[in-house]
């Protein structure tokens, strides 16, 4: 596809406007029935209003993320209507998602971009004054850019929204390296085929020549050329790697800035209150992400189910070994955050208390589902290189495994990147349409529960609590 063909169309801007308008209606509903700051908003909104009043000196020590969202809210004149900020962001998020999907698959897939923006956990948290939509938008925008300096700048902004986005900057560089080496590899393959033709020509010459001396000389020539070709190809890969590293020099600056930030912040990635964000080797987080991915895209599982089962059977010895490692990680590296036990406002609280904690072996019983999710994850990315898939999985692991708390919000960015790289199957329009319909139904149901079915805690009478992701 031509470079011009990789540009967004008028239809994309129309869809972005529609999404922003619909989202604004939802934020109005939230503002009407939940006018006071709720959940994490009790930290975000007072802080942004300090900025609105011109006080840029004080920063709430309970806040763990940098202040980019607050600066942008002031810049867009949304003081007093802070939730509407995400109504703007969802339109920009769609454009970034559409652009990234176009770059990766070389075809317009607006359905996938809409599916990402209507992911229920993302949509609901964005109806509140949360950083998720801004963070996702900046990461997708950075990934969609070809210009390295521009991309590094966008990723720097993304880190000012959420610090762990530095991992996705590294993922961008890794993908650039893989793409560049693939180009070199294709050239080497072409040269290799040419060398094979030359070898066959020499073999033919050997048959025509008589005398052992002639055969020895020609064999020596072929061997010499083969060794020369091998050395040349190795040199090409080394040269390409060095060139690619130099090409991504703006990211070296970004990396140095992030290292300085870590030193300045006493080695911690989070700002402010660090007690609730201690690092853990929480290996099952990756398994939860894989299950989340499969369940969130269940409409795409059905057309692939027979293939996923067939692949699982074919690789059963390997998957048995992986299952053992999964069981060990679940047994030795499962953690339960105090918030998960105490806060019944989140849906994950009920999953944990009614299943994971009530039934001792439940966490082991879902391992077959984890295995199918892993196979599904790789199968849906079969149009991408195996290095890309492994890079995405490792980047996801680096993002979610250190987190003590199990929270669906942590899965949003890796899920979005995966979803926009999925190799669509026919009839893709039906699956995508049903996927979006299911998303909308979940959004409506969760919004209804949040807005119209509050409850109270016995120790905080008169204060309404609400269900959310």
Automatic annotation (TrEMBL):
Query: What's its membrane topology?
Result: Multi-pass membrane protein
Q: Which GO terms describe its biological process?
A: dolichol-linked oligosaccharide biosynthetic process
Q: Broadest EC class?
A: transferase
Extract the ranges annotated as region (Disordered): 195-228
Keywords (A to Z) from UniProt = Endoplasmic reticulum, Glycosyltransferase, Membrane, Transferase, Transmembrane, Transmembrane helix
Segments crossing the lipid bilayer: 7-26, 111-131, 151-174, 240-263, 283-302, 314-335, 355-378, 390-413, 433-455
Subcellular localization, per the record? Endoplasmic reticulum membrane
Major location (coarse): endoplasmic reticulum
Q: What does this protein do?
A: Dol-P-Glc:Glc(2)Man(9)GlcNAc(2)-PP-Dol alpha-1,2-glucosyltransferase that operates in the biosynthetic pathway of dolichol-linked oligosaccharides, the glycan precursors employed in protein asparagine (N)-glycosylation. The assembly of dolichol-linked oligosaccharides begins on the cytosolic side of the endoplasmic reticulum membrane and finishes in its lumen. The sequential addition of sugars to dolichol pyrophosphate produces dolichol-linked oligosaccharides containing fourteen sugars, including two GlcNAcs, nine mannoses and three glucoses.
Tell me the protein family, please.
Belongs to the ALG10 glucosyltransferase family.
Protein name, as recorded = Dol-P-Glc:Glc(2)Man(9)GlcNAc(2)-PP-Dol alpha-1,2-glucosyltransferase
Q: Which organism is it from?
A: Bursaphelenchus okinawaensis
Its taxonomic placement starts with: Eukaryota, Metazoa, Ecdysozoa, Nematoda, Chromadorea
């Amino acid at each position: 596809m031509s470079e011009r063909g990789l540009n967004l169309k008028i239809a994309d801007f129309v869809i972005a406007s529609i999404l922003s308008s619909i989202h604004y209606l939802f934020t109005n509903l939230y503002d009407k029935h939940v006018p006071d700051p709720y959940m994490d908003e009790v930290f975000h909104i007072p802080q942004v209003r300090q900025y609105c009043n011109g006080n840029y000196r004080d920063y709430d020590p309970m806040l763990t993320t940098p202040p980019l969202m607050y600066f942008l809210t002031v810049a867009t004149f949304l003081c007093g209507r802070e939730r509407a900020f995400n109504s703007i962001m969802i339109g920009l998020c769609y454009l970034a998602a559409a652009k990234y999907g176009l770059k990766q698959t070389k075809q317009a897939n607006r359905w996938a971009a809409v599916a990402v923006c209507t992911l229920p956990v993302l949509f609901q948290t964005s109806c509140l004054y949360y950083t998720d939509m801004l963070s996702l938008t900046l990461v997708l925008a950075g990934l969609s850019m070809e210009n390295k300096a521009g991309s590094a700048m966008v990723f720097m902004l993304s880190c000012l929204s959420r610090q762990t986005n530095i991992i996705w900057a590294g993922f961008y560089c890794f993908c650039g390296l893989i793409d560049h080496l693939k180009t070199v590899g294709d050239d080497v393959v072409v040269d290799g085929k040419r060398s094979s033709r030359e070898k066959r020509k020499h073999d033919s010459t050997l048959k025509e020549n008589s005398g052992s001396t002639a055969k020895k000389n020609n064999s020596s020539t072929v061997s010499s050329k083969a060794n020369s070709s091998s050395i040349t190809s190795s040199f090409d890969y080394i040269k390409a790697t060095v060139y690619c590293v130099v090409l991504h020099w703006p990211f070296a600056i970004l990396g140095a800035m992030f290292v300085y930030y870590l030193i300045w912040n006493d080695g911690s990635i989070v700002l402010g209150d660090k007690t609730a964000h201690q690092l853990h080797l929480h290996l099952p987080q990756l398994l939860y992400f894989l299950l989340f991915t499969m369940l969130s895209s269940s409409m795409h599982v059905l057309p692939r189910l027979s293939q996923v089962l067939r692949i699982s059977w074919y690789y059963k010895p390997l998957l048995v070994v992986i299952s053992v490692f999964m069981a060990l990680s679940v047994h030795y590296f499962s953690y339960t955050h105090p918030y998960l036990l105490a806060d019944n406002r989140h849906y994950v609280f009920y999953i944990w208390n009614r299943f994971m904690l009530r039934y001792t072996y439940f966490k082991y019983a879902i391992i077959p589902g984890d295995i199918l999710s892993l196979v599904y994850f790789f199968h849906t990315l079969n149009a991408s290189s195996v290095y890309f898939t492994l890079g995405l999985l490792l980047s996801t692991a680096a993002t979610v495994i250190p987190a003590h708390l199990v929270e669906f919000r942590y899965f949003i960015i890796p899920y979005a990147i995966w979803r926009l790289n999925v190799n669509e199957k026919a009839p893709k329009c039906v699956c995508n349409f049903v996927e979006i319909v299911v998303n909308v139904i979940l959004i409506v149901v969760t919004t209804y529960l949040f807005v119209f079915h509050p409850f109270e805690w016995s120790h905080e009478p008169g204060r309404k609590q609400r269900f959310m992701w």
